[in-house]
Specification:
It holds the Pfam family HxlR. This protein has 123 residues and is mainly alpha-helical. 60% of the residues lie in helices and 11% in strands.
């Protein structure tokens, strides 16, 4: 039997967790147009801490989704770029991005309706 992401011990589950992480989706999207430096990524992905950015970038490099290139300059310059695997991953993530943008109004309407129905009336 092949990989089964529904089995908690399967490595594909870990990969799905990684690519489904909110920061991975945003980092891969930010790098779609070309390489960026760490500080540029931090500015582009609003709300991510430096610690989480560092951890996520390290994991994505380890998984072969990004490359990290250090240039011998003063101060040191490091760029992150999508690999072929990362560019391939960016395609379905781009579809998710488009879906979210196209359907956000409908989702907000559903949320508002749900909240109105499930919020206790004030006394």
């Amino acid at each position: 039997m092949g990989p089964d992401p529904y089995d908690r011990n399967c490595p594909t589950r870990q990969l799905l967790d990684r690519i489904g992480d909110q920061w991975t989706v945003l980092i891969v999207g930010a790098l779609r147009d070309g390489p960026l430096r760490f500080t540029e990524l931090g500015r582009r992905v609003d709300g991510i801490s430096q610690k989480v950015l560092t951890q996520t970038l390290r994991s994505l490099v380890r998984d072969g989704i990004l490359t990290r290139t250090a240039y011998p300059t003063i101060p040191p310059k490091v760029e992150y770029e999508l690999t072929g695997l990362g560019r391939n991953l960016s395609e379905p993530l781009d579809m998710l991005d488009r879906w979210a943008r196209q359907h956000m109004a409908s989702v907000q309407e559903a949320r508002d309706a749900y909240d109105a129905e499930h919020t206790p009336a004030s006394a």
